[in-house]
Structures are given as C-alpha cells and as structure tokens.
Design goal:
about 5% helix; two-stranded parallel ribbon; little secondary structure; 1 helix
Length: about 350
C-alpha cells in the first residue's frame, strides 16, 4: 500500500480534480477535513484515524477501505460505495442517503443523527453502534445484525428489515410504519408504543418481546410469533394474523377489531377485557385462554378450540360458534344471545349465562 505525503496527495487531487484515483493509498491519520473528493476512487485505501470532518465524498468509491477510528463528523457520503470497515469511526451527523454499505462493519461506530435515507445496509454489522436519532427511512437493512442495539428515536418507516437480527433491541416508540419485517428475529425486543401500522411481518419472531401500547393496525403477520409477548393495550385493528402464535402472551385490553386470526394459537394466553368484535377466529387453538370480560361479539368462531377457557363475563353475542369446543370452559355470565351454537360442545349451564 502506497504511503502518501500531504504534497503528493495535493498533486493527485490537482491532476484529477473530478475523480481522483487513490485506490490502495495509505492515507491513514492524514488531515483531510473539508476537502472536496466528489467521485473519488478510493477502493481498498487506508483511511484509519484520518481527520475527515465535513469532507465531500459524494458518490466516491470506498469499497474495501479501512476507516477504523476515522473522524467523519458532518461528512457528505451521499451515494458513496462504502462496503468498508468503519469500526469505531465517528459519523455523527453524516449524510449517507442512498449510500451502499453492504456488509459494512459498523462495530462501535457512532452514527448519531446521521441520515441513511434509502441506503443499502444489507448484512451490515452494528454491534455496539451508537444510533441516536438515525434516519433509516426506506433503507435496506435485510439481514443486518442489530442485536441489543438502542434504536430509540430512530426513524424506520418503510425500512426493509427482512431476516435482520434485532434480538433484545430497544425500539421504544419507534416508527416502523410500512416496514418490512419478514422473518425478522426480534425475540425479547423492546417495542412499547412503537408504531408498526401496515408493516409486513410474515414469520416475524417477537417471542417475549414488549409491545405494550404498540400500534399494529393492518399489519400482515401470518405465522408471526408472539409467544409470551407483552401486548397490553396494543392495537391490532384490521390486522391479518393467520396462524400467528400468541401462546402464553400477556395481552389484556388489546384491540382486534376486524382482525383475521384464523388458525391462530392462543393457548394459556391472557386476553382479559380484550376486544375482538367482528374478528375472524375460525379454528383458533385457545385451550386454557383467559378471556374474562372480553368482547367477542359477532365473531367467526367456527371449529374454535376453547376447551378450559375462562369466558366469565365475556360476550359472544351474535357470534358463529358452530362446532366450537368449549368443554370445561368457565362461562359464568357469558353472553351468548343470538349466537349460532349448532354442534358446539358447551359445558352445563352456568349462572348468568344469556342465550
């Protein structure tokens, strides 16, 4: 790797002002602050510990470059090819819109308040990265490693997080509107008050995650995993949750108006005072579920397995319970007025049941 002096670097820039060719150059620890390197060709160069604040590297090629501990505060990296090692670099306030950071190493990198709108971050590694206030909207983070990262205050609207690892990540209050979370691994993630409206969540794993008061209206979450998740007061209005798994979830006062939960699993889950009006619950597996005081009016509950469920004080008024299994269920004060009970297996009459 060639070692450049400041004079040689200046000559290189003068001789090729539009697209300086510095591939493989050793520029480590140099002071490059404020330079205009628009479109520069710097593949496999060494820029470790270089001072590069406010530099213009728009649409430059830094493929394979070493930028460990580089200081890039406020730099313009829009559209840059940055499949590089940025371990411990400081990119505070950088513009990285539409940049390509495929497989980039962002270990302990400071990206606070950086803009990554539309950036490609496929399989990027964010171990220990500082991500305060980052704008990831419409970026591609497919397969990215974001385990245990703090994403609170970030914008993830329209972001592709398919197959990404977000185990234990903090996404409290984050906007994930229209995000793609197909097969995303989010076990134990913190998402209280997060907004996931209209997100694509097929096969997303949210086992033991915290989604209290989260907005999941109109999500598409077929085969999604919510096992033992905390879902108190979350909203799933109009959501498509076919064959989703809510086993053991703690979900009191959740809202499932018009949701499709056909074939969902709810064994031993806690849905007390939850609201399911007009929801499709056909064929659900909900043995031992707690539905005390729940609103299940005008629901499709054909072939539902509610054996041993606690339905005390719930309403199933006008619901279709044909061939449903309510054997050994607790039905004190259950409202079954106008319900279709043809072929349903019901326990003996209990006090206060309305038919």
């Amino acid at each position: 790797m060639a070692l450049f002096t400041r004079q040689e670097l200046a000559l290189a820039l003068i001789s090729a002002p539009k697209h300086p060719r510095l591939g493989g150059a050793d520029l480590s620890e140099l002071d490059l602050r404020g330079l205009d390197l628009d479109g520069a060709l710097l593949p496999f160069s060494d820029l470790s510990r270089a001072l590069m604040s406010d530099i213009n590297l728009q649409e430059a090629n830094l493929t394979g470059a070493l930028l460990c501990f580089a200081q890039l505060q406020g730099a313009n990296l829009r559209g840059t090819q940055l499949e590089a090692d940025l371990t411990s670099a400081d990119l505070t306030g950088c513009i990285l819109d539409n940049a390509n950071l495929t497989r980039a190493r962002l270990v302990e990198t400071n990206l606070s308040h950086a803009s990554l709108i539309g950036a490609t971050l496929t399989s990027a590694v964010f171990e220990g990265a500082v991500l305060i206030g980052v704008d990831f909207s419409k970026s591609n983070l497919e397969g990215a490693e974001l385990e245990n990262t703090n994403l609170e205050g970030c914008n993830l609207e329209g972001t592709n997080l398919s197959g990404a690892a977000l185990l234990g990540a903090n996404l409290s209050g984050v906007s994930l509107i229209s995000a793609t979370l197909t097969a995303t691994r989010m076990r134990g993630a913190q998402l209280p008050k997060a907004n996931l409206r209209a997100a694509e969540m097929t096969r997303c794993s949210l086992t033991e995650a915290n989604l209290e008061e989260a907005i999941l209206e109109r999500v598409k979450a077929r085969n999604a995993q919510f096992r033992r998740a905390r879902l108190a007061r979350a909203t799933f209005r109009g959501a498509a949750l076919l064959e989703a798994d809510f086993s053991g979830a703690n979900a009191p006062k959740t809202k499932f108006h018009d949701a499709i939960l056909k074939g969902a699993k709810m064994e031993k889950a806690q849905f007390s005072k939850a609201r399911f009006p007009d929801a499709d619950l056909e064929g659900i597996q909900a043995q031992g579920v707690d539905l005390r005081g729940a609103d299940l009016s005008y629901c499709k509950l054909m072939d539902a397995n509610l054996m041993g469920a606690n339905l005390e004080g719930a309403t199933m008024q006008g619901s279709d319970l044909r061939s449903a299994n309510l054997r050994n269920a607790k039905i004190t004060n259950l409202d079954l007025r106008y319900a279709n009970l043809n072929g349903a297996d019901l326990p003996e009459r209990a006090p206060g049941v309305k038919r």
